[in-house]
Amino acid sequence: MFQRPGSYMSSEYAKQLGAKLRAIRTQQGLSLHGVEEKSQGRWKAVVVGSYERGDRAVTVQRLAELADFYGVPVQELLPGTAPGGAAEPPPKLVLDLERLAHVPQEKAGPLQRYAATIQSQRGDYNGKVLSIRQDDLRTLAVIYDQSPSVLTEQLISWGVLDADARRAVAHEEV
C-alpha cells in the first residue's frame, strides 16, 4: 500500500495502536460492522479493521475523529501511555484511622462508614491506616458535597490525611 511521506508508522507501533482501538471498540460492545452502522457509514468496517490490524496507517486527524466517535481522549488510544498519560504516580492517599476515631461523629460519620466498608471489603482491620484511591476521594467529595481539593484540606485539618495528599489532588486536577 502507498503511504505518503511523513505518514510512516513502525509496524509494531501500528499494531499496538490497533490493539488499543480494538479494545475500545470491543469494550463498547461494537463489532466492526456495528461501528459502520452506528457512524452511519462514516467509518467503514474494512477501514477500521485495517487500522486495528496495523495494516493501514491512521493520520492524527483521523485518530482524533475516531477517539471522538468512541467518546474517549486521544491519549487513551496511543500505545505506551498510561491512562491519563501520568509520568509518575501521584502520592498515595492514606487515612489515619486512629485520628479519624477522634473526629466528632457529626463531621466524620460518612467518612467513618466509607472507611469501614473498604476495610470490610478488603478484610483489612489493622485499624491504624487505610489507603484509598483517587476515585474514593472523588466519591467522598460527592458525599460531602465539596470539591476533592476542599475535602482534602478538611481531612488534612482533621489530621486524617497527610499534607502530601495535596499533591495527589493537585495532580488529579491538572
From TrEMBL:
Source organism superkingdom: Bacteria
Residue ranges constituting the HTH cro/C1-type domain according to the UniProt record: 21-77
UniProt-recorded Gene Ontology molecular function terms: DNA binding
Residue ranges the record marks as coiled coil: none
PROSITE patterns in the cross-refs: HTH_CROC1
Gene Ontology biological-process annotations: negative regulation of DNA-templated transcription
Transmembrane feature ranges: none
InterPro entries membership: BldD-like_C_sf, BldD_C, Cro/C1-type_HTH, Lambda_DNA-bd_dom_sf
Pfam families to which the protein is assigned, alphabetical: BldD-like_C (PF21179), HTH_31 (PF13560)
Name assigned to this protein: Transcriptional Regulator BldD
Source organism (scientific name): Streptomyces formicae
Upper classification of the organism: Bacteria, Bacillati, Actinomycetota, Actinomycetes, Kitasatosporales
